Amino acid sequence: MNAPKNVGAFFDLDGTLLPAPSLEWRFIGYLVAGDDIGVAAACRWLAQFTLDFLRGPQAAIEDNKRYLAGLRESLATDWASTLNADCLPFYAAGIDCIRWHLAQRHRVFIVSGTLEPLALAAAQHLPGQVGTSATKLEVRDGKWTGRLEGEHMSGKAKACSVRALATEHNLDLDRSFAYGNRIADLAMLEAVGHPVAANPSSRLQRVARVRGWQVVDWRKVKAGPLAANHRAVSRLSPKEAQ
Length: 242
Fold this sequence. Notes:
Helix 2 runs antiparallel to helix 3 (57-63). This protein has a single domain, classed as 3-Layer(aba) Sandwich (Rossmann fold). It has a six-stranded parallel sheet with strand order 3-2-1-6-7-8. It contains ten helices and eight strands. The longest helix has 17 residues, at 39-55. By secondary structure, the protein is of the alpha/beta class.
């Protein structure tokens, strides 16, 4: 009764599978606690971030990685070694959803705007084999430069990543699934045949309602079988569901 392997399931991370604070803010807390970033330096970065945010919120979020300049790349590995269930309190219903897709033999991926080493660390705590596509950082001589390598994984970049993964793994996007919580996930959701607005912002929820997309709130659902997944699979043809 398993679906073919050429179906993909693409998940956003922060806000979709993981409640606030974001992975990046959790990492910043680790850096401050370990004195890798001084409190004064963190405050200066936050002040600059606030100014950038007032000028352009999305650009501030995407481009302000200067706090990492000069820090060794291995700090992400050190942080990953400290993680446990308390550090990464994933939504139980979201984890159930991943398990459901894996049971159907779907290929599961995290497609996230968070930093790539953080996404890789988080993926280690998810069930089964989960691929990742996230924001890459420029590294020189084992240290971050504070600049991005390529695009920030948001908006159209997420959709491009989904299409690239589909090509690489021979996935049928018309039969694939995507889960996101913000309007920045819209392009990714539009790229698949089964988009799901998970824990959606008010703006994304309005779009989802107009387009007749599935809407789920994993913040209010306990672990167990998800009606969301049952509804999603019911939209596959009988042949596809076998």
